[in-house]
């Protein structure tokens, strides 16, 4: 049974490799799906100044009409990831990094969104985590999409290893 709010904390291994390879200067970063705060805490340790919100604390991302910082980094609920991307750029997010499913762009809706909001980097991870906490063999391959603008002319493909 899936969590009703799609709350699945980001594994530390993913957060660490993301922050090691992100390449953004220290700046305020909005984390609008902070859940239990573990990704935001890693942002603090990496020198960023996170602005953290979550639906559980009364801050639904889709209710925001203005970005709380120009940069956004989060692990959004996958069931609304497409709407999340469109809304983020509609309210003024300028750059964004999202943990996402590895096949986010591999469908008709993905291609349509790619035409609107092509990331500058798309990263597959060469390992799997037990993201859903089922035990046994991990069932989900994850990726990261990074935008330095709401629509890049080109997208670089990368594969990252766990550090």
Number of helices: 4
Strand content: 15-25%
Shape type: globular
Radius of gyration (CA) equals 15 Å
Question: Which spans have pLDDT < 50 for at least 5 consecutive residues?
Answer: none
Termini separation (Å)?
31 Å
Binned, the helix content reads 10-25%
What CATH calls the topology is: Rossmann fold
CATH superfamily descriptor = Vaccinia Virus protein VP39
**Overall SS class:** alpha/beta
Short description:
With 163 residues, the chain is of the alpha/beta class. It is 23% helix and 21% strand.
Description:
With 163 residues, the protein is an alpha/beta fold. It has one domain: Vaccinia Virus protein VP39 (Rossmann fold, 3-Layer(aba) Sandwich). It contains 4 helices and 7 strands. It has helices spanning 12-21, 38-45, 81-90, 108-116, and strands spanning 28-31, 49-52, 71-74, 95-101, 121-125, 142-147, 156-160. The protein has a 7-stranded mixed beta sheet, with helices on one face. α3 (81-90) links the parallel β3 and β4.
Name the features.
163 residues, alpha/beta, Rossmann fold, seven-stranded mixed sheet, 4 helices, 7 strands, 23% helix, 21% strand, globular
How are the elements arranged and paired?
Layout: H1 12-21, E1 28-31, H2 38-45, E2 49-52, E3 71-74, H3 81-90, E4 95-101, H4 108-116, E5 121-125, E6 142-147, E7 156-160
Parallel strand pairs: 1-2, 1-3, 3-4, 5-7
Antiparallel strand pairs: 4-6, 5-6
Helix pairs in contact: 1-2
């Amino acid at each position: 049974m899936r969590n009703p709010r799609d709350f699945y904390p980001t594994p530390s291994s993913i957060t660490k490799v993301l922050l090691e390879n992100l390449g953004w200067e220290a700046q305020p970063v909005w984390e609008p799906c902070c859940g239990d705060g573990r990704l935001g805490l890693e942002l603090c340790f990496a020198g960023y100044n996170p602005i953290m919100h979550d639906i559980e604390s009364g801050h639904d991302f889709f209710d925001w009409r203005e970005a709380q910082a120009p940069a956004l980094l989060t692990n959004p609920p996958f069931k609304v990831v497409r709407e999340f991307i469109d809304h983020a750029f509609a309210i003024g997010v300028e750059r964004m990094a999202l943990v996402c499913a590895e096949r986010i762009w591999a469908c008709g809706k993905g291609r349509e969104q790619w035409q609107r909001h092509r990331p500058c980097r798309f990263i597959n991870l060469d390992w799997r985590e037990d993201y859903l906490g089922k035990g046994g063999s991990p069932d989900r391959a994850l990726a990261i999409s990074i935008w330095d603008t709401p629509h890049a002319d080109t997208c670089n493909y990368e594969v990252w290893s766990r550090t």
